[in-house]
Amino acid sequence: MTTTVVASAAKVHSSVVEATELPRLIRLTDNLYGAAFSLMKLLPARYIIDQAEAAGTLLPGTPIIETSSGTFALGLAMVCRLRGYPLTIVGDAAIDRELYTRLTMLGATVEIVEDTGQPGGIQGARLARVEELRQLRPDSFVPGQYDNPDNPAAYGSVAELIGGTLGPVDCLVGPVGSGGSTGGLAAALRLSDPTLHLVGVDTHGSIIFGTPDRPRMLRGLGSSIHPGNVRHSAYDEVHWVTAPEAFHATHELFRTHGLFMGPTSGASFQVAAWWARQNPDSTVVAVLPDEGYRYQSTVYNETWLREQGITPAANPAGPTLVDHPLDAPSTWSRLLWARRRFDDVMVPGAHA
């Protein structure tokens, strides 16, 4: 018997941005799906620029200034190169040689700042430098990924893809940095189902959900500032994961599913896989933000891991349930945030 496969008409994309900004939806277990992006931050970078152009606040040739030491910088550099905007990225030492090369090849000017001990740590120092540059160039445009509402709004198209492909989703799990992806996706999905359970994944040393600020080995999620786009009352549950646990999950995602992703994807997968096992009748989607090529010399490199004193390892016991962020131990922890405001979690009864 011969089976004939008729290929459907393929779309010719206008740019690599359009071709790669949306995720692939991949079934990982019976009830767990991964929304696997090549470079998730391409989507808000493109959307923010689109909105600024439409509003007339971004004119041809306008210099753009932004702070990022990771994938938002790369996504923005790609968009700016394609549209002819001069770009300055203010970052820190987390911009490794490979990322620096890619940014500069795309025409971006990269400024590296150091932590001066001011409030907000290195992110505060970066934001301060962006403001200095903005005052020197009053004609410039600052996308402002941490506070610009166009960041979460960009994920409406992803919500349409998920809803149109999978149908109703019971639980969304994703890493929290700027708050754009999890907050934006949940807001859009809740338009059709307000009961969607949102799980934010953070790491110890990040102040977003109330743990004390300290150096973090797990980068790409968490923050030393409170981004305006993190709407705490959107989250039903928060997990804090460690670098060894997340790195192990990153490796497992590749070993088990062939998904070569970065450590924030590993952290998301770690939590989502656990949640899916605990709730086998629920449909769970894990946000997997970027691929692993940037991390070949670090997270996927045994020598680097040894030098950092890190042994990737699973936590078979699962997360420790705590009642307050300050009670979270230095291992995988979980708090039922219950859609409360930040102050209501940190100081119960503060707004009673």
Protein described:
There is one protein chain. Helix 2 (42-55) crosses helix 3 (71-83), helix 7 (156-166) packs across helix 8 (180-189) and helix 9 crosses helix 10. The radius of gyration is 20 Å and the shape is globular. With 352 residues, it is α/β, with parallel strands linked by helices. Helix 4 (97-105) links the parallel strand 4 and strand 5 (109-112). The strands form two sheets. It has an eight-stranded mixed sheet, with helices on both faces. A three-stranded parallel sheet has the order 3-4-5. The chain folds into two domains: 17-41 and 149-341, Rossmann fold; 59-136, Rossmann fold (3-Layer(aba) Sandwich), CATH 3.40.50. It has twelve helices and eleven strands. The N and C termini lie far apart (72 Å).
Quick description:
By secondary structure, the protein is of the alpha/beta class. It has helices spanning 16-20, 42-55, 71-83, 97-105, 121-136, 150-153, 156-166, 180-189, 243-257, 263-278, 302-307, 342-346, and strands at 24-27, 32-36, 64-67, 87-91, 109-112, 171-175, 197-203, 237-241, 284-288, 320-322, 333-335.
- CATH C-level class of the largest domain is Alpha Beta
Instruction: Give the overall average pLDDT.
Output: 93
Number of helices: 12
Percent of residues in helical segments? 25-40%
